[in-house]
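Record Glycoside hydrolase family 5 domain-containing protein, 356 aa.
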Amino acid sequence: MIPEGLDRRPIRELVGELVKNNFNCVRLTYAIYMWTRHGNRIVNDTLNDLDLPEVVNGISKFNPSVLKMTHIEAFDAVVDEIGSQNVKVLFDNHVSEPKWCCDDDDENGFFHDRHFDPREWIHGLTLAAKHFHENHAVVAMSLRNELHGPRQNQRDWYKYMSKGALAIHETNPNVLVVISGLNYDTELQFLKKKPMNIDLGKKMVYETHLYSWSGIGTLKLKEIWTKQPLNRICGNSIEGLDERAGFLTTGENAVPLIFSEFGFDQSGSTIEDNRFLTCLQTYLVGRDLDWGLWAFHGGYYLREDKVHLDESFGVVDATWHSLRYTNFTHKFQLLQRKNQDPTSKHNFILLYILRI
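=>
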């Protein structure tokens, strides 16, 4: 319920690091309970209840005013600074119960799980949409990160995702509404037979995720990227991506799709990660898709009972001052530039060279 890194650097510098590394939007995560149950809780009280003196001391040094804020006020401060540096925000409901995500048995995964009451979820979305109604930095709100678990079914997906999308749209007509699929946001293929029949005024956007172990069109094994020829495994992965999500961007009823989460171990990029990333970058550039990388932060206040746990997938290292992967700028320069001009009248050809 508190954006990471406030115990490491001033908010202004944290956002400045995003800008310096050519990011123009933040997928900022939050928990439903932050709005429905803990909105008036003071940050300092929460950290003390969790016995995190290291975090309190760090925030006291770099962002002391945050300690006296409520959780929602702390989010306001972060969003305002992001907006002041001309960066946009995709507000992402990651979980209901504030905790690390995700496992099939975490009781946060699908509607009617212990911590996923549809009514409270819609209420939380509505409160968030209303709160940021006048904040122009917030340009999009996603419904839920990575639906998962044994309760998953298409009937409830259509029912509640439609209700959630309409609740955001009616409360804040200024934002895009981002809709995730099933099975950790890897499956949307059921929309081929039954499109979501709601009117959001051309603001409906879908999202999908992928990691080297996700198994889209492949086995769910990260090692498969080194056990089969790259062209074969990449071809299978792209075919699977198009089958499950990419199809949404084609045809008469095409809709926008954001590749809102992928990532790789940036502490020492492995052969598997390099091959996966090369394949995925080719796909993203070729389809001209917007994307989000997990993650920017160098670590966590508290994750799974561990204090200051390192995030090996983070763009910045544990100090929050340096790139974790020294080749990051070169690796992402193609993705971070404008490759297709929607106003151009000229045809063009892109040649991709797969490097392993």
